[in-house]
Amino acid sequence: MQLYIGNKNYSSWSLRPWLLLTHEGIPFEEVRLRLSFDDGSPFKNALAAVTPSGRVPVLVDEGLAVWDTLAIAEYLAEKHTARPLWPAQAQQRARARSLCAEMHSGFGALRNACPMNIEASLPEVGARIVAEQPEVVRDLARIVQMWEQQLDEHGGPFLFGDFSIPDSYFAPVCTRIATYALPVPPRVQAYVGRVLGLPAMQAWIRDARAEHDFLDFDEPYRKAP
User: Computed from CA positions of residues 100, 195, 80, 67, in that sequence, does the dihedral angle turn out positive or negative?
Assistant: First the structure.
């Protein structure tokens, strides 16, 4: 399998399937492309050869291209049935899918105000956002509510006990909480620390910090060095 991804520092959508595959020890080839949304760019040209979507991530397996993070997660769960990628119990799988779908289509205020930027440290920006943007505070409160409910129900260490697709899906939020020092309760902060401390997540973070590739369109708060 090949997984096409963007810059590790910025591409939150790419992180999800990469973390899932790497944490679960599923072999794949990483194809990293420098993010660019200009027509005719190397990024667009490389993706045009494998998918009509023109976006990352894309999983290619035996000639089949699967795009969209939820579709990739479902494909991997069906292909690797021996691995507990979704919770084992039907009702819990439904809950897990609900959480992923809510993240997939929602939280636009948090996404826009706090884009993923792993190598940056922007606590002052985070404090200003929390003080001035109530819609971001609402998004963060809903995420905290979801996570606390799951941790209460399953006792941790992850949202459904063991690591599963929802944890990979919320991993980019964990990086945002760290980058912008967003205020969350201690129990939620501990969960964030467990996700960021996973060996696979640490590998992604190391690669992100080593890129040294400043992309203006993903940097609303900093100027090029």
Answer: positive
CA dihedral over 46, 52, 55, 56, signed as positive or negative: negative
**Residue 171, amino acid:** A
In 3D, which of 225, 221, 204 has the Cα closest to residue 8?
Answer: 204
Among residues 83, 116, 144, the one where a domain terminates is 83
Does the pLDDT of residue 9 top 90, yes or no? yes
pLDDT of residue 132: 98
- Residue 5 CB neighbour total at 10 angstroms: 21
| Distance from the first to the final alpha carbon of the chain | 36
Q: b/e map of 38-64 (b: 16 or more CB within 10 Å)?
A: eeeeebeebbeebbeeebbbbbbeeee
pLDDT average, residue stretch 23-35:
98
Residues 6+ apart with CB under 8 A from 153: none
Question: In which domain, by residue range, is 73 found?
Answer: 2-83
What are the φ and ψ backbone dihedral angles of 66, each rounded to 5 degrees? -120, 115
Residues 157 and 185 in one domain: yes
Rounded to 5 degrees, what are φ and ψ at 145? -60, -45
What CATH number is given to the structural domain containing 47? 3.40.30.10
Give the model's pLDDT for residue 57: 98
Amino acid identity, residue 63?
G
How many structural domains comprise the chain?
Answer: 2
Pairing of strands 58-61, 2-5: antiparallel
Domain CATH for 135: 1.20.1050.10
Q: Where are the alpha helices (DSSP H) in 106-185?
A: 108-113, 123-132, 134-154, 165-179
